[in-house]
Amino acid sequence: MGFFDMFKKDKGKELFPDNAAVEARADSIRKEIQRLGLPGDITVNVEGSKVKIGGKVPDEATRRKLVMIAGNVKGIDGVDDGGIEGGQTAQAGQQAQMKTYTVESGDTLSKIAKETLGDAGAYNKIFQANQPMLKDADEIYPGQVLIIPDQQTANA
C-alpha cells in the first residue's frame, strides 16, 4: 500500500525506552505483533522513528492491522508496509485506500462512528476493525489512529 505518516511520535503504547537500540525497538514491535496473534511471516525494521514491515499476510485486514500496531507505538511516526506481500485488494486497477481516524480528546467510538460512518450505532464495526489492538471499546486515547471500515463493511 505505501507509507503512512499520520501517527504521533509522542503518543502510543510504550514498548521500549527512548534510548533503546534500533534492533531492540524492532524486536519489541515484533513481539507485540506476536502477542496480538496476527497471522503471517512478518519482518520489522526500525530506522529512527520509522518502521518498515515486510513478509507475507493472508488478507488486507491483517495488513492494515500491522500498520496500526506498528504506528500506534510511542516513538514511531511512520510505517512503510511496501515490503508486505499478499492482502492487497485491487479494484479497477487501484489498491483500496485505508481510511483512518486520529482520536481526539473527548472522542468515543460512538462519536467517531457518527462522524465517519453517519451512524453512532456503528461503533461496534470500528471496534471490530481494530481488534485485537482494542480490548475494550471505552479504552481509546487521544492521538491513537484507528481503522475506519468502508461503508459496505460498516453497513453489512
Report on the architecture of this protein:
The protein is α+β, with helices and mostly antiparallel strands and 156 residues long. The chain has five helices and eight strands. It has helices at 22-35, 60-71, 109-117, 123-129, 151-155, and strands at residues 3-4, 41-47, 50-56, 78-85, 90-91, 94-95, 99-102, 145-148. The strands form three sheets. The protein has a four-stranded mixed beta sheet. The chain has a two-stranded antiparallel sheet with strand order 5-6. Strands 7-8 form a two-stranded antiparallel ribbon. The longest helix has 14 residues, at 22-35. The two termini are 25 Å apart. Mean pLDDT is 90; it is low at 90-95.
- Range of strand content: 15-25%
Q: Helical stretch count?
A: 5
Outline the low-pLDDT stretches: 90-95
Q: What is the CA-atom radius of gyration, in angstroms?
A: 15 Å
Strand order of the largest sheet: 1-4-3-2
Averaged pLDDT, please?
A: 90
Topology:
Blueprint: E1 3-4, H1 22-35, E2 41-47, E3 50-56, H2 60-71, E4 78-85, E5 90-91, E6 94-95, E7 99-102, H3 109-117, H4 123-129, E8 145-148, H5 151-155
Parallel strand pairs: 3-4
Antiparallel strand pairs: 1-4, 2-3, 5-6, 7-8
Helix pairs in contact: 3-4
